[in-house]
Amino acid sequence: MFRTRFHRREFLTRSSLIALAPSVPVFLARAASAAETSYDGRILVVIQLSGGNDGINTVVPYTDEGYAKHRDKLRLPTEQLIKVNDQVGLHPSLRPMADLLEDGRLAIVQGVGYPNPNRSHDVSMAIWHTARMDRDEHKTFGWLGRAMDERPVPADGAPHAVLLGDDSPPVALRGRRSTSVALANLQDLKLASRPTLPDHRLAAAPGQDQNQDDDLAAFARRAALDAYATADLIENVTQNVANDRSAYPATQLAERLKSVAQLIKANFGTPVYYAIQPGYDTHAVQLPTHARLLRELAGALKAFLDDLRTARLDDRVLVLCFSEFGRRVQEDASLGTDHGTAGPVFLAGPRVAAGMVGPTPSLIDLEDGDLKAAIDFRQVYATILHQWLGITSPGVLTNSFELLPIFNA
User: Fold this and answer.
1) Which of 62, 300, 325, 359 has the least C-beta neighbours within 10 A?
2) C-alpha gyration radius of the chain
3) Closest to 167 (Cα-Cα) out of 181, 187, 157
4) CA nearest to 341, candidates 144, 110, 171
5) Does 397 reside within a domain?
C-alpha cells in the first residue's frame, strides 16, 4: 500500500493549484470511505504537449517534395520512418504508438488548427483550452469545465476532473459548477493550495457566493475553505490504491499516466483526467530533444493502454493528445523550428476508428510559410463531446461543428 506523508503546512502551499470548485471535501470524504465505486460513464484522458509539437517530423509526409525543400538538416531519413502508407510515416521514436495503430487503438487526425492562427504560446493555448476566439473569454471557463457543468457529480463524490502533476490547473478544466482537483502524485498525495487571502477574508457569509458563479475568486475561496476542513482526510485517499507493479517506462509522463490508471482501477468516478508533457518549444537543436519527447510520449501511452487492457478497463477510456500549434515548415538557422500553425492530434483507445483522419497537409501549398489547417480543433472536441461523453449542449462550443469519423460504429 502507498503511504502518504502529509503535513498541514504542505497541504496549503501554492495558490496556483487551488481546486477551482466548491466540493473537494465531498470527493475526499466519499472516496476515502468507499471500498468500491460503480462506473457510470466513459473516461477522457487528455495529454497536453506543451510548447508546440513539430507535427511535420511527427507524422512525416516523406513523399511531399516540400519536405526535402524546406527541411535540410532536420529531414528524417525515409528508411528510418515507420511507414503508415505510401505518403506518410511516423517518427522512429513512435514505435509504441505505431504498435497501437497496427492494433487498432490509434487514430491520427491530420492538419488540425483554427482560423486566423495565433503563434503566441499563451494565446493559442487559451484558444485550445476555452474553445473561444475572443480573448475576453480566455480567463473564464474551459471547454471541459463547461462540458462537465452539464454532468451531475459522480456517484462516489469524486471530482469531475483531476490534473496529475505539479503544474497549474489548466483553464480547460475550469467550470462554473463542475469540480476539479490537482494531485502532485499518489505516492505523496496532496492538494497544494495555500490561500493568498487572510483568514478573515476567506470566511464568506453563508450564501454569499450563490450569485457569483462567474467569479473565479469565489471558487478559489470556497475551495480553500473546504481544503482546511478536509486536510486530515488526505492520507486516506490512497488507501484504496493497491501497490501496483504494472510496467511503465521511467519517465515523468509515464508516472503520471500510471497514477491515472491506478485511480481508474481504484474505481474513482472521475470522468476526465489531465496530464502535461512540457518541452516541445524546439527553436534550436530540435532533433535529439524531439526524439526524446516523442519516445516518452509513445512509451507512456502504450504502457497506460496496455495496463488498462490487462485490467479490462480500457474500453471505457479515450486518450486525446494535442499541442497548441505546430512548427514552421522551414527549419531555422539554429537547427530548430519556429512557431507554426496546424499539426496532428492523436486519439487512442480500443473504441477509435484506427488510421488517418483528414488530408495530409501540403508542404508546398502554404499560407505565409505555414501549413493550412484542414480540420478545426473544435471538430475534434465536438466529436468527443457528442460521441464519447454524450454531451450535446451547444453552449460548450457555442457553434455546431461537423463531426469526424473518429470512433467505430
Assistant:
1) 359
2) 21
3) 181
4) 110
5) no
Range of the domain at 97: 34-186+241-387
pLDDT tens column, 71-129: 999 999 999 999 999 999 999 999 999 999 999 999 999 999 999 999 999 999 999 99
Residue 24 lies in a domain: no
Q: How many residues does the chain have?
A: 409
Place of cell 487492457: 309
Distance CA 60, CA 290 (A): 13
State the pLDDT confidence band at 25, using cuts at 50, 70 and 90: very low
Q: Residue 323 maps to which CATH number?
A: 3.40.720
- Whether 135 is in a domain gets the answer yes
**What gap in Å lies between CA 354 and CA 105, rounded to an integer?**
6
3-state secondary structure 174-192: CCCCCCEEEECCCCCCCCC
What is the spatial distance between Cα 58 and Cα 105, in angstroms, rounded to a whole number? 18
Q: What is the mean pLDDT of residues 336-358?
A: 97
In order, the DSSP letters of 213-254 are TT-HHHHHHHHHHHHHHHGGGHHHHGGGS--------SSHHH
Q: In this predicted structure, which of 15-29, 275-289, 330-344 has the lowest mean pLDDT?
A: 15-29
C-alpha neighbours within 13 Å on the C-beta side of residue 133: 11
SS3 per residue for 1-29:
CCCCCCCHHHHCCCHHHCCCCCCHHHHHH
- Which residue is listed with cell 518549444? 281
Sequence-ordered strand ranges (E) for 324-380: 343-348, 355-357, 375-376
CB 340 within 8 A of CB 326: yes
Alpha carbon distance 53, 208 (integer Å) = 44
As beta bridge partners, residue 83 has 89
pLDDT band at 6 (very low <50, low <70, confident <90, very high): very low
Total domain count, the chain: 1
Residue type, 273: Y
Can you state the percent helix, strand and coil of the chain, rounding each to 5? 35, 15, 50
CA 205/CA 195 separation, integer angstroms: 17
* Structural domain contains residue 346: yes
Give residue 234's Cα distance to chain centre: 24
pLDDT score of 189: 52
